[in-house]
Design a protein that fits this description.
Layout: H1 4-19, H2 29-38, H3 52-55, H4 82-94, H5 121-128, H6 146-156, H7 161-169, H8 175-188, E1 195-198, H9 200-216, E2 227-231, H10 258-265, E3 269-274, H11 301-306, H12 312-318, H13 328-335, E4 341-346, H14 352-358, E5 361-364, E6 384-389, H15 392-402, E7 432-436, H16 446-461, E8 465-469, H17 477-492, H18 511-522, H19 525-537, H20 540-566, E9 571-575, H21 584-587, H22 592-599, H23 604-609, E10 613-620, E11 626-632, H24 638-652, H25 660-670
């Protein structure tokens, strides 16, 4: 028979269990004890029966390591800014301790704010991740401070494609959460003008469909549920395609470009279309009808600390730098973490140039490896869909999803392309790196030259063979490129006559006058100028003198590369640009043709030879802006090219951008985006 003492103890236990059903999800005695004390169930001889809310001086502090950011593969771990830390400390200090009722997991929140629990396993794991570290499973039902959730969300957006794909498969994050977070960040970085069209409804619908596939355990591929962006010269069914021109404003294509369709077939979430120079004719992303794109690094802590102080109004209006072009919108979108990867186009360096200026990876594949079907052409014989990502591994993942034969494009390879995973190169002693002496071009800054030399020494000290090589016809390449480019532009732009699609003038005097008025109203000065030049080179009396001669020089340029690679050189190492990104006010002082000739001089030769090339972010300039170096590989040897680029990326440890302007808008934007919460 139970004693009175036993009955008393049993009654207390039953009462405690009845009142603590919400404490059952806790997996350890430490967590259970913290929850009981927070609810006022635990009693202290010194404090009596007062609930914790009345005697707690301040909520538990977040773990020390939760202040650390994270970096992508091969990148240094960034520090959270002092402003960010102060704001987070203020939020934690101001937050009232939870009452017994509001402290219940999943229960009401005091003052509409989350209870002051220590960070949940999901947030803690995301904030501790480093490189390929696994993220712990998210513990549902636990609340975290808003500051911790924002930090965890920012870090997740910096993860690699493989890391995010693994997190989606294991249920640590959902496609809808990723999509909502990216859409919210697009709104807070609207001042960059990186996007022309944001397909919010379409993206959310695609994310929901992806979420259902993950629930069934049937994802379509590694890209399923991952937000991406596409340059606005790729056709997209149901989404406006403008080429940043009045000529195509309002045009909606009836079909998807092959590369876009391949992304959608793998479950990728299309966030929108990115900004560019009109019809991709430019090297700064400043000549589009929707306005110039601003480089995210203009608003970074690294740049602000080294820029010359100016008045606030002058600083905001003019102290920003260009992204490069013409795929500047895609580069800015990847650099500002609004998407995990983006598509660009590369005709003379239009992917690698903005990649170097925005501190991201820009890959131009071998001509014919990726289909051009659905890419509105600039120069058919040189155009290649480009890939922009934050690390080399991600570029390899996207290449594996896009490469291969396309029956709609006769220039694509006939053999099937097998996706590959990049190995971790440890021994470069068998590698031969060529340094083309002709790439020491006029106008190359001393800073870029010094960085180029250091990179060569890096390979040499690691055991690689570094040799100087010659590409003698490189000095003629930019003139040859200009002739061939404008000639093909004149041919390609002839389709925009106002009859079948695009803008049509109201001029009705005659068909000829309607043609002329349509093209005058639809094209800007840059496009009309290239059409005029191209038609001049294609005149009967000039065809042999200019166009045919340029084609012969192009063959000589391609043969130079063939000879160098046959001599035993595996990879060529060159600068990507002549200098770091120029301020917008300085950049627009020169005409488009002059700017393009300067900015494409180090990149367009690879397009004329049809070779793969990649720009890898290498260091920050004295002004705190990104500088990239270019690797050029053998035809269809992307695996070797990317493997070497990955090794180099790991050695240089390029820093992660610290976007001060985004952090300033962060709390204002994300606290109103309820669905974007990661807690």
């Amino acid at each position: 028979m139970m004693t009175s003492f036993g009955k008393c103890m049993m009654g207390n236990i039953i009462s405690l269990v009845k009142r603590s059903t919400s404490l059952l999800p806790y997996r350890s005695m430490t967590q259970l004890g913290m929850a009981i004390r927070a609810r006022g169930e635990a009693r202290s001889p010194r404090l009596g029966t007062r609930p914790l809310a009345q005697r707690s001086a301040r909520p538990p502090a977040a773990p020390r390591d939760s202040m650390a950011g994270t970096a992508g593969p091969g990148q240094a771990r960034p520090r959270v800014s002092d402003r960010d830390q102060d704001r987070d400390k203020d939020e934690d200090r101001d937050r009232a301790a939870p009452s017994p009722r509001s402290a219940q997991p999943g229960g009401p929140r005091a003052n509409g704010r989350p209870p002051s629990w220590p960070p949940c396993q999901w947030c803690r794991g995301v904030l501790r991740q480093d490189g390929g570290a696994r993220l712990p499973r998210r513990e549902k039902g636990r609340g975290c401070s808003a500051s911790l959730r924002r930090r965890a969300g920012r870090v997740m957006l910096r993860a690699s494609l493989r890391q995010v794909s693994a997190a989606l498969k294991e249920g640590r994050v959902s496609p809808a959460e990723l999509c909502q977070r990216c859409l919210a960040l697009i709104k807070s970085t609207k001042f960059l003008n990186a996007y022309i069209t944001v397909a919010e409804e379409t993206a959310l619908k695609q994310a929901e469909e992806s979420e259902e596939r993950y629930k069934r355990g049937q994802p379509l591929g590694i890209l399923d549920g991952i937000p991406i962006a596409v340059k606005d010269n790729f056709n997209t069914a149901g989404i406006e395609t403008t080429c940043a021109s009045n000529m195509l404003k309002g045009y909606i294509s009836p079909y998807n470009a092959t590369v876009v369709q391949k992304l959608l077939d793998q479950g990728a979430v299309l966030l929108g279309k990115t900004n560019l120079d009109e019809f991709a004719m430019g090297s700064g992303s400043t000549d589009g009808v929707f306005g110039p794109v601003r480089n995210p690094w203009s608003y970074s802590k690294q740049y602000k600390e080294k820029s010359v102080p100016k008045s606030r109004s002058e600083d905001e209006e003019s102290d920003w730098v260009i992204t490069g072009g013409s795929s500047g919108g895609s580069a800015a979108a990847v650099s500002s973490f609004t998407c995990f990867a983006a598509l660009g186009s590369d005709t003379g360096g239009s992917t690698r140039n903005p990649a170097a200026h925005c501190g991201v990876v820009g890959l131009k594949p071998t001509y014919g490896l990726i289909s051009r079907h659905g890419l509105i052409p600039l120069v058919n014989s040189m155009d290649v869909p480009g890939i922009l990502t934050r690390c080399v591994d991600d570029a390899a993942v996207l290449l594996g999803s896009l490469a291969g034969h396309d029956p709609k494009d006769s220039t694509t390879i006939q053999d099937d392309f097998k996706p590959f995973e990049l190995p971790n190169l440890t021994d470069v002693s068998k590698l031969s790196v060529g340094i083309p002496k002709e790439y020491h071009a006029p106008g190359l800054s001393s800073e870029i030259l010094a960085l180029w030399s250091k990179a060569a020494d890096l390979f040499k000290n690691a055991g690689a063979k570094v040799v100087e090589v010659s590409l003698p016809h490189t000095r003629y390449s930019i003139v040859c490129y200009h002739v061939l480019c404008t000639a093909e532009v004149a041919s390609n732009m002839a389709r925009f006559d106002g009859l079948e699609y695009g803008h049509r003038s109201d001029m009705k005097d005659s068909t000829e006058s309607m043609y002329a008025a349509t093209r005058r109203e639809g094209f800007n000065d840059v496009v009309r100028g290239r059409i005029l030049s191209g038609n001049y080179f294609l005149l009967k009396q000039n065809y042999e003198k200019y166009f045919v001669k340029a084609q012969k020089v192009r063959r000589l340029i391609a043969n130079d590369f063939v000879k160098v690679f046959r001599s035993g050189v595996d990879i060529l190492l060159t600068p990507t640009t002549l200098s770091d990104a120029a301020p917008y006010t300085e950049f627009i002082q020169e005409d488009n043709r002059t700017r393009s000739a300067q900015d494409d001089i180090l990149t367009q030769a690879a397009n004329m030879a049809g070779l793969p090339a990649i720009s890898v972010p290498t260091a920050l300039s004295e002004r705190g802006l990104p500088v990239g170096l270019q690797f050029i590989g053998r035809s269809f040897q992307e695996k070797q090219l990317l493997t070497v680029a990955k090794w180099f990326e790991k050695q240089v440890q390029f820093p992660v951008i610290q976007l001060e302007e985004v952090k300033r808008h962060d709390s204002d934007v994300f606290q109103h985006q309820k669905s974007a919460s990661f807690s």
